[in-house]
Amino acid sequence: MDQDRGHGMADGAAPLPRGAGDGARSVLDGLGDAPPSPLPGLEVLRALVADAAHRAAVLLDGPGDAPTGADEGVDDVTADVARFVARGGDAHLEAAAERLGVAPGRMRLLALAHRYGGRAAVATLLAPRPADPDVLASAEHAVQPLRPSPTAPVERHHNHLTDAPARVQLRYGPDLRWHPYVERYGTWQPAGEPCSDPAAAYRAARAALRASPGR
Predict the structure, then answer these.
(1) Residue 209 and residue 145: Cα distance in Å, rounded?
(2) Is the per-residue pLDDT at 126 higher than 80?
(3) Are 109 and 125 in contact (CB under 8 A)?
(4) Rounded to an integer, what distance in angstroms lies between the CA atom of residue 37 and that of residue 18?
(5) Fewest CB within 10 A of the end CB: N or C in the chain?
(6) 185 in Cβ contact with 198 (< 8 Å)
(7) What is the Cα 196 distance to its own chain's centre?
(8) Which residues lie across from 181 on neighbouring strands?
(9) 75: Cα separation from own chain's centroid
(10) What does the mean pLDDT of the chain come to?
(11) 37, 47, 54, 104 from 29: Cα distances, Å
């Protein structure tokens, strides 16, 4: 076998010099002027390129956060925009919110949900979904010893288990895990990574409130 071909030469193409890919720079780094309309600005393009590179690396490592039937309840565009903002912070939040037609505060919650639990967490945030009553009853029993007001009623609604006096809510997601939420400023907000154990999710929500109470 020809040594050059063993090093990646094929169909008569010249091989890349050794180390040619090391320290590669994006072609965008050499641009100084804004791209012509309708292309987005340089900062947005750089963010998109970085996001695409990250996504490719994740896909090479494994299936990652690819869409699955278990994630019904969130469309691909919403999930992808939430993922993009979750990685990039608030720099592109307003543009993302406009793209989805939601308020910036709502966009921030979608990104926060994705940061904690990926696509399934976004689906869990978006809308209630049916849940097995026995699953909810079992979860309520599991969190009962942890409740600061154990005699107060717990509300069950679809996949939501709400302990209003404690400002804690657990949502049973399409990933079959419990997503912790806390009430801040009149809004239920994602508060931690989802857990298969409802008691662990409840503790995570309580810890989040202690760290940043808010009202």
Answers:
(1) 18
(2) yes
(3) yes
(4) 38
(5) N
(6) no
(7) 17
(8) 169, 190
(9) 13
(10) 80
(11) 19, 12, 18, 30
